[in-house]
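debug: dumping io for the single-chain case to check the tokenizer round-trip. Nothing else runs in this session.
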Amino acid sequence: MSLFEQINSDLKVAMKSGDKVRVEVLRFSLAGLNAAQKEKGIKEPGATLIDEEVIAALQKEAKKRKESIELFRQGKRDDLVQKEEGDLAIIMGYLPKEMSREEIEKIVLDLKNKGFTEFNTLMREAMKVLKGRADGKLVGEVVKASIG
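debug: decoded output
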């Protein structure tokens, strides 16, 4: 079962169980995924979203939630922070586990040893390896720290 199908299936289960929060988050996520599906179908008729594309779309949603949480914290809106954190937790359940800082540091060090010493090239190569498994902001911090 593809990730797209899994989300659809989980939406139906959430609707049957009356989990309103989960239904809302999954519907919103599926709306974005359906739009991406439609866009891909225009370019390549009959094409469907692959798991990597679904993950990329969900990561965008997760990033939006993280940014919202920061803004709500600055505005001291704890009620909205809790709602966004709950939504984020649901989305994160469909994403692969993010790598730890130590794992990222090891990969960056390996790339640095292969000859990538300039920030831009090291960052580009690191993101190729870590795509979908690490936050770009964290990777940037690790790369900056490794360069000096």
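debug: round-trip ok. The helical segments are 3-17, 20-43, 51-74, 78-92, 101-113, 119-130, 136-147.
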